[in-house]
Amino acid sequence: MFWKNKSENKIDSQQLAMIEHARKRIRQKRGFHNHFIISIFLIVCSLLVNFLFNYQSEFTLFNTSWSYVISAILGVILVIHFLKVYVFYTFMGKVWESKHMEFLIEKQAIKVEKLKRSMDKEALLKAQSEWNNENQNRNVTIIAAAAENNVIGRNNDLIWHLSDDLKHFKNLTKGHHVIMGRKTFESIPKALPNRTNVVITRQKDYFAEGAIVVNSIESALALCLDDNRPFIIGGGEIYRQAMALADCIELTRVHENFEGDTFFPNIDNVVWQEVWRENHDKDDKHNYAFSFIRYKKRKQ
């Protein structure tokens, strides 16, 4: 228990530096305070001795009393000491200040990110609960194609071309709302025909020809009240937000690993149940084997 408490109360290097600096600063101010008292004492004594004994003739400089010269020198030294301690002193040096500021900014950014994730999670759980209560007869569906390592794209573009998968996507989404992020919309030539295109973006005054623009996935789904099966078609961040709100996943699993920069979320078997699968082998029109898989959200 002793070593545990000691570890928990351990002071990091930044705090040690601050403590050492505080001690140094106290010594500097105390030194100036002593210097001030001694300088005033010597100046008063020199002026008093000169006044009482009238020592002028032998100790003059430019016809000025020696006591004034000594007083001036002591005063200049005192002013220089004051400027050094209170005016020109930099807090532990510019390099240290810069590094410490970067450290604090990074630490604050981590806290903000944790808080943001916590708030996003709470918001999604709340939205899921409200959505389930108000939309029990709807079937919000995520549709995606993902590799074995969950890669879905690279440089805002598809990595593979599977004609049967495109037909599968078209047949399922035809006549329905298709909800997507801004980058996904910009990656397609134009709004998908025979479907209501809904684009989610935080950009104000964003215009998407042939599509409705909203600023959140909840707003997008609110537009689909007359659609019993709206589809969420990407990209990665929209998929992540939709996992809590969706009822079904239509996944094309490409049986290959790829390098990419956009990923589909992991499918938790505790939450999702596979209810249908159709396997397709590699052939002349398809460079990779793939499977159509349908998941349904388990009842809580």
Computed Rg: 37 Å
* CATH homologous group name of the largest domain: Dihydrofolate Reductase, subunit A
Number of domains: 2
Mean pLDDT: 83
- Approximate strand percentage: 15-25%
Oligomerization state:
single chain
Binned, the helix content reads 40-55%
**What is the makeup of the main sheet?**
8 strands, mixed
Number of strands: 12
What is the tally of helical segments?
Answer: 8
CATH architecture of the largest domain, by name, is 3-Layer(aba) Sandwich
Low-confidence stretches: 1-10, 59-63
Q: Record the strand order, biggest sheet.
A: 7-6-5-8-3-9-12-11
CATH class of the largest domain: Alpha Beta
Tell me the overall shape. Answer: rod-shaped
SSE topology string? HHEEHHEEHEHEEHEHEEEE
Using the coordinates shown, work out and report the CATH topology of the largest domain.
Dihydrofolate Reductase, subunit A
User: How would you classify the helix and strand content by structural class?
Assistant: alpha/beta
Question: Topology of this structure?
Answer:
Blueprint: H1 2-8, H2 13-53, E1 60-61, E2 64-65, H3 66-87, H4 94-134, E3 141-147, E4 151-153, H5 163-173, E5 177-181, H6 182-187, E6 196-200, E7 211-214, H7 217-222, E8 231-234, H8 236-242, E9 248-254, E10 262-263, E11 272-280, E12 290-297
Parallel strand pairs: 3-8, 3-9, 5-6, 5-8, 6-7
Antiparallel strand pairs: 1-2, 4-10, 9-12, 11-12
Helix pairs in contact: 2-3
